[in-house]
């Protein structure tokens, strides 16, 4: 059988016959018919066989009418009207958490962004809240303990910066509170280096602070000066900080103001300490004035709720007895206002604004002064006696007041004598405050002829002075020194201070700062040699066990005495003293000793020492006299010291201090005076023989 290879099949022949008539149509296609055939024909396998297996076979052609070639999908499963691929679902798949086969691991992961907190920012926020709370409560101990609990001691300089910057934008009260807190934190919570760093940070940010606080330079300078005065910043801080700051910044202006305007001024310590009031509380006069104003405003308006709010705003709950007393006096002066006043007191008692003890004290104080009040209001006693029963029946005055006032009628003869003596000395003291005539006052006391009541006089003198201005306080201290020389014994003065300290809590009801004032009077008495330092311990031992406030006052006085330059500071605490600077006093002492050494008279030299008027500084006389005796090899100086000791002009305490200063600087003194140690040993033995020095002097060093 002949092979069909190379010949067309019948089917192919038919296709060729049909092709010529359609040539034009096919030629219009982008591809020729031959191309189409070649694309869609399959080559037949070799060898004979059926037409379906020989040559090429034509398959079904899928193409668009536009002539563009379309690639056929290889895996299928698509197209219109098809079921799609195996296991294919319509749309996106969703995880059903209620499905029993639910697996949380199939949930898509989601990244959540969290802010990373800065420890310093958190610390600053905590510090701000502590400072705000301190400004509202004034509790130094709580603020210090809160800062300790915060930890992060490396951030303590920011405490200084934040505290001062917040106080700078507030009232003087907060500035004073900030200074008090800084002193409390010094060394105990914040070390000195960190305090210096905090103030330097403030100096660096002075330009920024000035944008919000116009007086930044002056206020910050005062804070730095106060820190130097309070010994929490060294004076060298100013020089060191100036070198580290650029010339054009306000920080240098701050340092210059602190140095020139504050720290170089005469008596700068007292001026700086009192620039913001010197206390975190209102003065007694301010509180009394506010009470009087709010009561008069209440009488005019009749708004009880507003009056209670004003009383509460005073924030002196321990002093509300003054409100009671003044309200009752006002009710007696303006009888038409009596119903309003009683209504206010009743409401204040019912709300717990004024405690029962404060109410009792207010009524008791008025009862004690009712006789004096009758001079201005003749019917005062009758009006008071009519108010008391109504107050008791309404329940806002304790019934114990009636019993107390009834029992007070029986007084012994001694009580009557003391009462009469007090009336007389009050007039004498008032006259002294007006005239400043000490000899006249001494004559008046001698005319009374009651030396056994000298402690009572001292108590009344200081109590009256504490409720007055600094001038009267200074006059009281000067008078106390004069009385000690003339008619008062040391025992009288000790007894008087014991009586004062025993009644310190009652005194504080009228005088808010009584404890500090008493401490200053005690310290001033020691500085003026009215009391010896050992008397302080004696006073403490004689106080009753339950008198904690009195013991605290003595401790405060001792701390004042142990401070640096205590003598000069305490002498000028009320603006008194001779007004001389220490250098001036040293110069005067040197000149009077030189004049005496060149042939002066002992009595004249003693008078010159007395005229200097600085008994707390007489140890300088002792020191310079001993040095001159060593240099000049002249024992006349020892005769002067003997005379001063005999007259009581220089006390054993001052002599001991002078010898102690020589002993401390003996090595330096030996460079100029080779035999200084031998001379000093001789003078010590001589002083012990003559009673200038205690036998125990120098034994502590020898041991």
Please tell me the CATH architecture of the largest domain by its name. Answer: Alpha Horseshoe
* Secondary structure category: mainly alpha
User: Largest beta sheet: what is the strand line-up?
Assistant: 1-2
Number of domains: 4
Q: What kind of sheet is the major sheet?
A: 2 strands, antiparallel
The low-confidence runs, each spanning 5 or more residues with pLDDT under 50, are 1-5, 22-59, 406-413
Strand content: under 5%
Q: Count of helices?
A: 39
Number of strands: 2
Percent in helix: 55-70%
Radius of gyration: 50 Å
The shape is flat
**CATH fold group of the largest domain:** Serine Threonine Protein Phosphatase 5, Tetratricopeptide repeat
Give the topology.
Blueprint: H1 10-18, H2 23-27, H3 33-40, E1 41-42, E2 57-58, H4 119-137, H5 140-150, H6 156-168, H7 172-185, H8 192-204, H9 206-212, H10 216-229, H11 236-244, H12 250-263, H13 268-273, H14 284-301, H15 304-314, H16 321-333, H17 338-350, H18 356-368, H19 370-376, H20 380-394, H21 400-407, H22 413-435, H23 438-448, H24 454-466, H25 470-486, H26 490-502, H27 504-510, H28 514-527, H29 533-542, H30 548-562, H31 566-571, H32 582-597, H33 602-612, H34 618-632, H35 636-647, H36 652-664, H37 666-672, H38 676-690, H39 699-702
Antiparallel strand pairs: 1-2
């Amino acid at each position: 059988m002949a092979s069909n290879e190379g010949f067309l099949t019948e089917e192919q022949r038919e296709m060729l016959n049909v092709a010529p008539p359609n040539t034009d149509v096919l030629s219009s296609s982008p591809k020729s018919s031959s191309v189409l055939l070649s694309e869609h024909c399959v080559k037949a396998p070799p060898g004979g066989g059926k037409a379906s297996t020989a040559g090429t076979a034509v398959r079904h052609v899928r193409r668009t009418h536009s002539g563009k070639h379309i690639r056929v999908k290889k895996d299928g499963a698509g197209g219109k009207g098809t079921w799609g691929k195996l296991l294919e679902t319509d749309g996106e798949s969703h995880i059903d958490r209620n499905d029993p086969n639910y697996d949380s691991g199939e949930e898509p992961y989601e990244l959540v962004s969290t802010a990373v907190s800065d420890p310093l920012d958190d610390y600053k926020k905590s510090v701000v809240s502590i400072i705000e709370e301190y400004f509202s409560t004034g509790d130094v101990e709580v603020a210090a303990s809160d800062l300790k609990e915060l930890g992060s001691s490396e951030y303590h300089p920011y405490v200084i910066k934040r505290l001062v910057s917040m106080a700078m934008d507030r009232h003087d009260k907060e500035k004073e509170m900030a200074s008090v807190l800084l002193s409390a934190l010094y060394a105990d919570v914040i070390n000195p280096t960190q305090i210096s760093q905090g103030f330097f940070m403030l100096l660096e940010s002075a330009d920024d602070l000035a944008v919000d606080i116009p007086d930044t330079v002056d206020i910050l300078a005062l804070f730095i000066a106060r820190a130097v005065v309070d010994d929490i910043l060294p004076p060298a801080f100013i020089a060191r900080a100036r070198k580290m700051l650029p010339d054009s910044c306000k920080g240098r202006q701050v340092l210059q103001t602190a140095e020139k305007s504050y720290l170089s001024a005469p008596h700068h310590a007292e001026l700086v300490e009192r620039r913001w009031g010197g206390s975190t509380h209102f003065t007694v006069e301010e509180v009394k004035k506010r009470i009087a104003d709010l009561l008069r405003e209440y009488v005019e308006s009749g708004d009880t709720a507003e009056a209670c709010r004003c009383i509460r705003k005073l924030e002196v709950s321990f002093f509300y007895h003054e409100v009671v007393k003044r309200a009752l006096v006002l009710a007696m002066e303006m009888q038409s206002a009596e119903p309003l006043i009683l209504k206010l007191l009743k409401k204040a008692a019912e709300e717990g604004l004024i405690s029962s003890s404060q109410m009792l004290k207010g009524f008791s104080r008025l009862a004690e002064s009712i006789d004096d009040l009758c001079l201005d209001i003749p019917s005062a006693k009758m009006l008071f006696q009519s108010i008391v029963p109504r107050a008791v029946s309404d329940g806002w005055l304790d019934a114990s007041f009636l019993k107390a006032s009834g029992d007070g009628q029986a007084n012994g003869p001694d009580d009557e004598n003391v009462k009469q003596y007090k009336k007389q000395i009050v007039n004498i003291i008032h006259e002294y405050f007006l005239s400043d005539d000490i000899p006249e006052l001494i004559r008046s006391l001698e005319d009374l002829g009651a030396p056994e009541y000298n402690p009572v006089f001292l108590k009344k003198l200081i109590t009256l002075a504490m409720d007055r201005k600094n001038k009267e306080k200074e006059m009281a201290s000067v008078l106390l020194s004069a009385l000690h020389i003339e008619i008062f014994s040391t025992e009288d003065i000790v007894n008087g201070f014991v009586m004062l300290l025993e009644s310190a809590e009652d005194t504080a009801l009228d005088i808010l700062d009584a404890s500090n004032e008493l401490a200053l009077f005690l310290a001033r008495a020691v500085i003026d040699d009215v009391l010896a330092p050992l008397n302080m311990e004696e006073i403490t031992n004689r106080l009753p066990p339950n008198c904690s406030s009195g013991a605290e006052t003595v401790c405060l006085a001792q701390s004042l005495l142990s401070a640096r330059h205590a003598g000069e500071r305490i002498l000028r605490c009320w603006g008194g003293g001779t007004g001389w600077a220490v250098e001036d006093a040293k110069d005067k002492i040197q000149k009077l000793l030189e004049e005496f050494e060149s042939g002066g008279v002992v009595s004249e030299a003693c008078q010159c020492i007395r005229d200097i008027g600085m008994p707390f500084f007489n140890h300088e006389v002792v020191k310079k006299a001993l040095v001159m005796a060593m240099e000049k090899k002249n024992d006349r100086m020892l005769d002067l010291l003997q005379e001063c000791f005999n007259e009581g002009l220089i006390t054993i305490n001052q002599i001991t201090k002078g010898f102690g200063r020589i002993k401390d600087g003996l090595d330096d003194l030996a460079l100029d005076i080779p035999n200084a140690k031998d001379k000093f040993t001789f003078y010590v033995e001589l002083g012990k023989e003559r009673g200038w020095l205690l036998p125990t002097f120098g034994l502590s060093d020898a041991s």
